[in-house]
Amino acid sequence: MEKDEPFQVDNLHGDYVQKTIADCIKDFENELEKTGLRFNLINKERSIEILSAYINSEQYFSELIKGEKESLHKLLPHLSAAYINNLSIGVLKAIIIKFHHNLFRKEIAIELAKDVFFLSIICMEKRTGFDYLEDEINKSFAIKGANARHKENRDSKADVFEWLDKHMHEYKSMDDAAFAIAEKVVPMKFRTVRQWLTEWKKLRSAGTT
Fold first, then answer.
1. For residue 40, what are the CA distances in angstroms to 91, 100, 150?
2. Residues 181-196: what's their mean pLDDT?
3. pTM for this structure?
C-alpha cells in the first residue's frame, strides 16, 4: 500500500466518518496522551519483533500483549483492567500499522487501522464515560439528531461488551450468547446484539477476552 487514501469507518455508534491510516494512528496516540504517560509508546524500536509475531505466531503475539498489559498496569495502576487490555492491543497494532503499513495489501492495512481506531474509541469510553465521549463525537464528526436514542445504544453496547468479557466463555456459540443477552441483559433485539458480538469479537481478535 502506497498512498494513504481516506476510507469510511464505523465509529461503533452507527455513524460513519472519513479517516486515513494516519488519522487512526493519531486518534490512538491522542488517547495515550490522555492517560498521562510522559513518553510515546508508539515507537519503532520494537516494531520488527511485534510485526514478526503478528504475521507468524498468534501465540507469541498474545504473549506480547500479555507483557504489554503487565507493563501498562504498572505505569497506569489507577486505570481498569478492561481499559489496560484494550490499550495494550491498540499499542501493538498501532506500532505495526504506523511503521509497516506499506508491507500489507491495502485492504489489510485499512482493517488494521480500523482496529486501532475502534480501540481508541473503546478506551476513551472506559476512561472518561459517555458524557465526554458524546461531546467529543459531536464536535469531531458533527453528529446531529437522535441523541437520546444513540446514547441508549451506546450505554447498552457498553453493558453488552462488559457482560461478554465476563460470560462469553460460558456459551458454545455467539448466537447462544446473543439469545441470552437480547431483551434480557439489555432492551435490544437479537439482530442488534448479534452485530455487537461481532464487533466485540473483532476487538479481541488477538485472542484475549
1. 10, 17, 33
2. 87
3. 0.60
